[in-house]
Design a protein that fits this description.
0% strand, 2 domains, Arc Repressor Mutant, subunit A, 11 helices, mainly alpha
Amino acid sequence: MDIKDMNSIWKQYNDTRDSQLKQLLIEKYVYLIKLVAGRLGIYLNQYVDLDDLIGYGALGLIDAIDKFDLTKNVKFETYASLRIRGAILDAIRKLDWVPRTLRKKQKELDKAYTELEFELGRQPEEVEIANYLGVDVSEYNQCLKEVNIVTLVSIDDGAYPLEMVKAPKSEMPDLQLEEKELKNILTQAIESLPDREKQVISLYYFEEFTLKEISNVLSVSESRISQLHTKAVSRLRAKLQKYNMIFPL
């Protein structure tokens, strides 16, 4: 189906709200659900099956089709992806998986990265972080799995996302300077990560790979990719705290 055909379908659906046309649009864009759900899997593979995420995301796609405004200069794929992501996150938050104890663990983990890096003058190793926390390495790795969900549900806390590194420049000069400084700090922080963690961050945020795709590229399990992602995020968050910045992703 070419672009002209799709434009015609969108116009007809906008005028008639015909159910058959709506079904055509759903079939055309259903791949977006799998794409968004696959990317969120880097946070959620320990908790939710991909099929469940796809189910949550389907509501977002339907909502996007119903509310899409043809008169605005926005690609439907972009608009729908945000709606799908929002629907999945809403469903996850309603499950209330983040007790206060998990948030406390996240803070303890961030503190460990911050203080050990300052003390050692380098990136701390797994065993050093585990010793700092007073646990063995297996317990530390279990902690990483648990706090991954904390990272996801804190996305809307008004913090600086990593995507700022590749975001378009603001038209306001003072904001341009702030964004430039932030991008420089983030870039340096990413470059300082261990190689595997840096690869995961690059593939996930910049190449926009799904969890499964990153797993295939690096030839390790999906759970290991999630673990590497959590480690990288904790290291980056610890670094940005020095600049009074918050890093949710």
